[in-house]
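Box S1 | Example of a co-folding query
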Amino acid sequence: MSIGSYLNSYVKTSADESKKNKRKAKLPLVVATWNVKFATSKAWDILINGGSALDAVEQGCRVEEANEKGQSVGKGGLPDRDGQVTLDACIMNAEGNAGSVVYLKNITHAVSVARKVMEDTPHVMLAGKGAEEFALTKGFKKEKLLTDASKKSWEKWTKTSEYKPIINIENHDTIGMLAIDQQGDICGACTTSGLAYKMNGRVGDSPIIGAGLFVDNEVGGAVATGLGEEVVKSVGSFLIVELMRQGKTPQQACEEAIKRIVQKPNSDYKNFQVGYIAINKLGEIGAYSIHQWFSVTKFQNGRNHTTQSDYFNKNY
Ligand code: GLY
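Box S1 (continued) | Returned holo structure for glycine
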């Protein structure tokens, strides 16, 4: 076979493969960390009506940011040890662009500020006072984020001031969301008030591109929840997407990323939780955590449902 006809047949096979993949993909779809059916429902409404994956993940995350009962995200989030609520969030679009905010105070919808950073500035990340001032110039309203319930929890905590990560706090932690729209484009977002009673100034994985979230529209996306320090040190979400690029399924890639954490010499994994979710271009989903009770909500084929993920530590 001449080089020319070989190349022609190669191009044809690739095109056929890609058509076949498109047929197989069960789109659209949205998947999120934890039991957040209202959030995935909001995202699904956007996707099924032809909206973009970017709008879907932003609007889905906003549902949980506004939910004062959730004490790990947005308004009502648990404060740092000094009683201040500080938010971290990020977002990535299908072109590989990203925006994030860290240590944001007084603004409920951190994910939307992150999107504005991505779309309206030459930067990826804004922090603290600068992020807040930027948000105010974009029309976001200043709000008190510390609710009575979270203030009470914090006051109770100050009696011992014992600092330790709480596994599966309230069965709900960082909200991470990944979506594929009807065009087959993948976007992701995540939002959090971070570790409860953290040190003032502490920033976790959620606003760090590659750690808390990574999306590559050619391959898939991944998002993390749990103890951010461990996710940052293993660049977990980027790792998962790269493993999928090398041929692993989303499930295999999530399991490998958890193994990288628990198999470190002297890993203290029994005392903290990390969970990952991932999707690939075909709409296949993976989820895995260190400990049990990490849940995942998926809206696909018109069905919104939450399941427990598989997990590493079976020694209970
Ligand atoms: N995963 C959230 C945080 O550690 O801040």
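Confidence is low (pLDDT under 50) at residues 1-15. Residues 174, 192, 194-195, 204-206, 225-228 surround glycine (CB under 6 Å).
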